[in-house]
Amino acid sequence: MKIINKSTLGFVLMIISLNSLFTKTLLAWSTGPEAYRTGAPGDKGTCKADGCHDSYSLDSGNAKFSITGPASYAPGETIKLKVSFGSSSGKLHGFEMTAIDADDNQIGKFKAIGKTTQVIPPNDYRGLKKEDKGTYIEHTRSGNKKKSWKVKWIAPANATGTVTFYAAGNDANGDGTNSGDYIYTTTLEIPAASGQ
Hints:
Number of helices: 1
Shape: globular
Order of helices and strands: HEEEEEEEEE
Radius of gyration: 19 Å
Number of strands: 9
Structural class: alpha+beta
CATH superfamily of the largest domain: Reeler domain
Strand content: 25-35%
CATH topology of the largest domain: Immunoglobulin-like
CATH architecture of the largest domain: Sandwich
Helix content: 10-25%
Strand order of the largest sheet: 5-6-3-8-9
Number of domains: 2
Largest sheet: 5 strands, antiparallel
């Protein structure tokens, strides 16, 4: 009888744990949204798509969402970028960003700074394809308590031309649901340094 009770208890605890993980993954995305939600060409749209965070029209709130960075980049160079919210009244925030070349292909690799951002790994619940490893970066669970994030982007050694950074951001009310949140998009173009 004791073995059955322990087994039953273990099974119930496992179901509760899985349900909690499943719910957090699908509804809150506090650990970062699924991949391909930056609004870039070829992406699945933003976190407003597919009935998620769709209370308001895209870019309809009063916050200012932006990407800032250097005036140019050189092939093989690592540059720093800042993704941020200004004039935001939300309690929690998040973002996802990628870099696109003139032919609408992902270019370069991202690197996280600190514990508030993460490069999306391939083949986890976020659905990033293996061939896109390193090309998407987003907030972490601790990062959604911030209004700005710093990241690094490494240009390919053979990079030329202008790179466009695409980001989508969530200005969330923090109620644990996907309603009542504002989704924003922004871009930043950075040309190759003169002569590149």
